């Protein structure tokens, strides 16, 4: 299958190899939660919610000098046609957890537990990236103290071209798939996952492309957060 | 999250600070360089139907044990004929299962795998399956109906840190030694599937295109200090971990990193280091596999001539780094043993004679002969079932910093290994020195050739039989 048309250079969904997907974010979608957000990347739709720090339920897991971050990732049954393995879900939960733990200032909330819930409503590739972006917005909405915004996106290498933002069809091609999550302003990589095979130099190119994509998403997230703050200001009558 | 039980080991603040400060000064507490692996031992075992007394399975399993420093992982590969997945009708399947026994670490829960167990399984799975290391299409028997399903079981026996690398090496080693029975289509109308017994037709190995080797980096500090192959204590202190799976061709097969942020330039440097390490480990695995297959063909040859022959099985020790014990150390041990009283050595000496071991014994104690005329051998020949611990020898073995423990690895298979009887058991000493955690690493004493015994003569086959009859 030709993932990049040789004549026009367009991909299967009409994008160019370096084009980002259409991103849309909304804050405060779950009224009951302390922080929530809806994040869309192309056709992938993810909703995330977080509650304020609570007492650790399982005392054996309590950490005395920092907060315990727990993340629950689930895919709605209607989100995709194919069955997903249970282990994949556990691994993604773990990965999101570790990524968010790196950006929240956990040492300010010792002996407490932070629960992040992420639900995939529509899956069209890049679900874990969308989840991390949604989680960032959620934590910002709930006013958690954070080091920086974490954004994530994926890139691949098909038909000898580095492609940014893989959708489901490109992901199923069993080609290389690099998912990167960065701390935007600090320019540090927190999440890096890769599957299939790539030579080192091509891997570096693909990783750099993904990092650029992440920075673009970070720019958008900042705008959304600023808008939200202005809205809150006007509601308060400031 | 892993359950933390009441008796789980917790690190003290002092120890944590000590390790952190040492790493900031570019020192590791076990005196390794930042990019040095601990000594690695790979043992192969192959279970064959004809060598097992009671066997209810007709399967030829491949297994391996890897000892990376204190970490001990065992891997076992089995195969089964199943129906293929609907979207891939002409490919076999490969699945990885992990078993984290609380024996290895009280923090592990028995039964359901915890998060880290799943992560480890998925990293090994990504490296092996998604990179195309094992050829899946060759496992197809009948398109759309029957394919071979390969199952790799990873058992963690001892958690000494860096389980991912050890488990990966174990999985690779066991896949290399695994043989599946040959099956052909036959019968009246060529539609009947015949699975040939391993006695009739030689079982086939898997087609493995490349060996993806996992190299784990531990991150400390602000994300600027990286070390390879973290030990258990370093893992408790580390800020995060990054695992890169590469093969010796310079292809990156898998990367897994989540947690503390590191800059992309550090990642690229780690990739370069990983390329070197992966090539090293690949050559070690291949070398060990080559020695093992030589041993296997030797056994096969012998079994044709002597139907009751029990195969020689030795631990193929492939260690990094290789350190030669110098003459002075050998002399010291010799002198020490010479000074020991004879009855201490002779208490439980075997009635049957000792089997002459190969030509590579380094030090022979010409002065000392036990009562039966059993000659003493150098510490290179350990009895696997020690009956007596000599405390003074334990102390001296500490000085020599790590004598090889070899034949203990033999416990994998039920075949009788050729034992070397020596009046003085040194194995206990070696294991106690291991348990005491000497600061020095497990320096190996010689290259692997030391364990290949000299070609057997008719006498040796006869001798083994005698021992059996007496029992």
Automatic annotation (TrEMBL), chain B:
Q: Which domain of life does the protein's organism represent?
A: Eukaryota
Could you name the Gene Ontology cellular component terms for this entry? Answer: cytoplasmic exosome (RNase complex); nuclear exosome (RNase complex)
What InterPro entries does this protein's entry cite? ExoRNase_PH_dom1, ExoRNase_PH_dom2, ExoRNase_PH_dom2_sf, Exosome_comp_Rrp42_subfam, PNPase/RNase_PH_dom_sf, Ribosomal_Su5_D2-typ_SF, Rrp45
Pfam families, alphabetized: RNase_PH, RNase_PH_C
Localization (cell) = Cytoplasm; Nucleus
Recite the UniProt keywords alphabetically. Answer: Cytoplasm, Nucleus, RNA-binding
**SUPFAM superfamilies, sorted:** Ribonuclease PH domain 2-like, Ribosomal protein S5 domain 2-like
Q: Which family does it belong to?
A: Belongs to the RNase PH family.
Q: Which residues form the Exoribonuclease phosphorolytic domain?
A: 53-181, 210-273
Entry's Gene Ontology BP terms: exonucleolytic trimming to generate mature 3'-end of 5.8S rRNA from tricistronic rRNA transcript (SSU-rRNA, 5.8S rRNA, LSU-rRNA); nuclear mRNA surveillance; nuclear polyadenylation-dependent rRNA catabolic process; rRNA catabolic process; TRAMP-dependent tRNA surveillance pathway; U1 snRNA 3'-end processing; U4 snRNA 3'-end processing; U5 snRNA 3'-end processing
Name this polypeptide is given? Protein ECERIFERUM 7
Listed GO MF terms:
mRNA 3'-UTR AU-rich region binding
Q: What is the lineage of its organism?
A: Eukaryota, Viridiplantae, Streptophyta, Embryophyta, Tracheophyta
């Amino acid at each position: 299958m030709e993932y990049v048309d040789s004549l026009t250079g367009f991909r299967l969904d009409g994008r160019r190899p370096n084009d980002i997907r259409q991103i849309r974010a909304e804050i405060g979608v779950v009224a009951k939660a302390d922080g929530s957000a809806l994040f869309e990347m192309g056709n992938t739709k993810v909703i995330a919610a977080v509650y304020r720090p609570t007492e650790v339920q399982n005392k054996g897991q309590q950490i005395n000098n920092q907060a315990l971050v727990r993340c629950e990732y689930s895919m709605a049954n209607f989100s995709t046609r194919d069955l997903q393995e249970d282990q994949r879900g556990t691994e993604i939960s773990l990965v999101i957890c570790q990524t968010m733990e790196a950006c929240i200032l956990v040492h300010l909330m010792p002996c407490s537990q932070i629960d992040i819930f992420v639900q995939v409503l529509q899956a069209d590739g890049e679900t874990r990236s969308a989840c991390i972006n949604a989680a960032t917005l959620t934590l910002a909405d709930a006013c958690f103290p954070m080091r920086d915004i974490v954004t994530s996106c994926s890139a691949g290498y098909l038909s000898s071209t580095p492609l940014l933002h893989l959708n489901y069809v490109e992901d199923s091609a069993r080609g290389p798939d690099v998912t990167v999550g960065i701390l935007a302003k600090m320019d540090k990589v927190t999440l890096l996952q890769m599957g299939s095979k790539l030579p080192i130099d091509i891997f570096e190119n693909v990783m750099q492309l993904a990092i650029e994509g992440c920075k673009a998403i970070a720019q958008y997230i900042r705008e959304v957060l600023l808008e939200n703050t202005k809205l809150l200001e006007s509601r308060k009558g400031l | 999250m892993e359950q933390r039980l009441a008796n789980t080991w917790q690190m003290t603040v002092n120890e944590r600070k000590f390790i952190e400060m040492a790493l900031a000064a570019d020192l590791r507490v076990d005196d390794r360089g930042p990019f040095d692996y601990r000594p690695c031992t790979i043992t192969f075992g192959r279970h064959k139907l004809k060598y097992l007394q009671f066997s209810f399975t007709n399967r030829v399993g491949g297994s391996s044990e890897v000892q990376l420093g204190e970490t001990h992982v065992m891997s076992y590969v089995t195969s089964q004929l199943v129906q293929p997945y609907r979207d891939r009708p002409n490919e076999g399947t490969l699945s990885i299962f992990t078993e984290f026994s609380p024996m290895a670490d009280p923090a592990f829960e028995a039964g359901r795998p915890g998060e880290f167990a799943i992560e480890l399984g998925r990293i090994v799975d990504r490296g092996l399956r998604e990179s195309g290391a094992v050829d899946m299409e060759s496992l197809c028997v009948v398109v759309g109906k029957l394919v071979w399903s390969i199952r790799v079981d990873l058992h963690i026996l001892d958690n000494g840190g860096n389980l991912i690398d050890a488990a990966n090496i174990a999985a690779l080693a066991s896949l290399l030694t695994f043989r599946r029975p040959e099956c052909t289509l036959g019968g009246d109308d060529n539609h009947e599937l015949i699975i040939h017994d391993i006695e009739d037709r030689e079982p086939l190995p898997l087609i493995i295109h490349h060996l993806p080797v996992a190299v784990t980096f531990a991150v400390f500090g602000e994300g600027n200090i990286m070390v390879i192959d973290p030990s258990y204590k370093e893992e408790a202190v580390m800020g995060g971990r990054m695992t890169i799976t590469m093969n010796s061709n310079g292809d990156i097969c898998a990367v897994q990193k989540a947690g503390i942020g590191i800059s992309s330039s550090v990642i690229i440097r780690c990739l370069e280091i990983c390329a070197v390490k992966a090539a090293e480990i690949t050559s070690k695995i291949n070398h060990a596999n080559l020695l093992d297959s030589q041993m296997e063909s030797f056994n096969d040859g012998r079994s044709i001539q002597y139907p009751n022959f029990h195969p020689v099985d030795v631990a193929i020790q492939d260690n990094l780094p290789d350190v030669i014990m110098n003459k002075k150390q050998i002399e010291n041990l010799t002198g020490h043993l010479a000074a020991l009283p004879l009855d201490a050595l002779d208490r439980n000496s075997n009635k049957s004679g000792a089997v002459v071991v190969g030509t590579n014994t380094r030090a022979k104690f010409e002065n000392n002969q036990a009562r039966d005329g059993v000659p003493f051998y150098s510490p290179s020949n350990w009895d696997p079932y020690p009956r007596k611990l000599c405390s003074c020898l334990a102390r001296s073995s500490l000085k020599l910093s790590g004598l090889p423990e070899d034949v203990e690895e033999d416990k994998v298979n039920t075949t009788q290994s050729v034992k070397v009887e020596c009046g003085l058991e040194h194995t206990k000493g070696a294991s106690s020195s291991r348990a005491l955690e000497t600061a020095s690493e497990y320096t190996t004493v010689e290259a692997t050739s030391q364990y290949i015994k000299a070609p057997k003569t008719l006498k040796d086959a006869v001798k083994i039989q005698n021992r059996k009859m007496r029992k």
